[in-house]
Write a structure and sequence with these properties.
globular, five-stranded mixed sheet, binds zinc ion, 551 residues, alpha/beta, binds 2-acetamido-2-deoxy-1-O-phosphono-alpha-D-galactopyranose
Amino acid sequence: EKQQSIILQSASRFPPIQGVRFSYGTAGFRSDASILSATVFRVGILAALRSLKTRSVTGLMITASHNRVSDNGIKIADPHGGMMTQDWEPFADAIVNAGNPEDLLQLIIQFTKKENISFGGAQPAEILLGRDTRPSGGALLEAAKQGINAVIGAVAIDMGILTTSQLHWMVRCRNKGLEALECDYFAQLSSSFGCLMDLVPRDIITDRVDEKLIVDGANGVGGEKLKELKKQLKGLVIQVRNSGKEGEGILNEGVGADYVQKEKVVPCGFGPNDVGIRCASLDGDADRLVYFRVLSTSSNSIDLVDGDKILSLFALFIKEQLSILNKNGKEESNNNNPVRLGIVQTAYANGASTDYLRLLGLEVVFTPTGVKYLHEKAAEYDVGIYFEANGHGTVLFSEQLLCWLEARKNELASASAGCECQKAALRLLAISRLINQAVGDALSGLLLVEAILQHMGWSIEKWSELYKDLPSKQLKVKVMDRTAVSTTNAETVVVEPSGLQEVINTETAKYPKGRCFIRPSGTEDVIRVYAEASTQEAADNLAQSVARHVD
Ligand code: NG1
Ligand code: ZN
């Protein structure tokens, strides 16, 4: 009774905008920030219910990632730190679109009955809140808090301005009973990075690898956080650009990982003096990372080292460490039960990267776009590495493998300290602590890249030469109703409208090495077109001609 009137009362303070429908897309709800407060309020309620249901800490992140500064969005982190379970998405859609407080309340009553959720239990629900640097973030955070407070027994804990990855990491740690403040996050990253650097083979002439790295912070939250983190790092000289300081520029405008990866041009804030230097770009909430090298500022050209190449570098290194362990551990029981290493990509992965990974003998599988799918798939392996071409990804280790590595480490420490085998175990353990197990994380990904380049003694140029990207082109087509397009087979085949896939096939067949697919975006009102072919001109033409049929 009391619960019902609280919900009704507070919901009436956040009336939904009539005529606007929201849908839980690739990464939660996103739109222009000015129409989001009712949505955010309701997602606050949802996060509290999720916490009650799981009897664990959940998280709420307010961000629109790489989108415009005037946009914002909200997503929920589940107890393990990943995205909210897909089973709850229909309920999320329903409550966000409920027309008035009374309808909202009815939906909540029905759902909590069905899910057996009871209010006001002994254990309070705890929800960690985070937001990026968007100016609308403060007010939206307040709306989320009010949503949480409308649920009796739920407590909102404001963790302040964070990267998306930090918030997810904190939720995961809290549920493991570990310390989960920002200083703990920085300490874990810097100590595991230090561990990997200490294990760099001495015979590598490290001065072949330039210590200097320039990072484009997208004028978002990542730059400031990196400035904090770098104080604790040894062996790296990091210069942060586009950190979002007053006057430096606007969030995601002409800067950041999304811009650099999609446009393949030099971001703002970089000039002729940067030619040839190893550079990286984060996105607006620092869960994506790409590298690049400025070729020429006059022609605005870069050599892009995207998520697929980061994935390839990680895969190569981890495979090498696993094989050292296997070679030296012949009598190990684990030999009967080899470590399963799996690579997860989406249709946006450059075809050349997939060929390269398969040539290495690795198992590569595909899922639809969106980390919720990639993450779930990667978790099926002992070591699962997933990346989207745009630079969102991470490496997941199974509990079983971590236990096995710990045991190996201790065994080997007593037997033959300092053997290659022990070092490999130590490296893999360090990677599991460095790389964010909850979600993609530009900061931890960046440190792993840097450690591996030092280990290999590779320049960015050398790394980039692992394979040559096939020329590709991405376009987006504004449409009235993006739901008119549906796809299957990890989004590579159009189901509806009927006949469209045949048209795409016909166009694609005209180009050597041609590959093309379209899909509705889950975050914007557009249909995305991706094309690949043997030359840039061909890829552009293929994308253009298919885009014309989408309209
Ligand atoms: P949509 O809008 O569904 O394509 C985009 C990215 C995803 C993912 C989400 C979440 C592309 C082609 N798509 O999704 O990979 O990062 O945003 O931010 O880059
Ligand atoms: Zn992001």
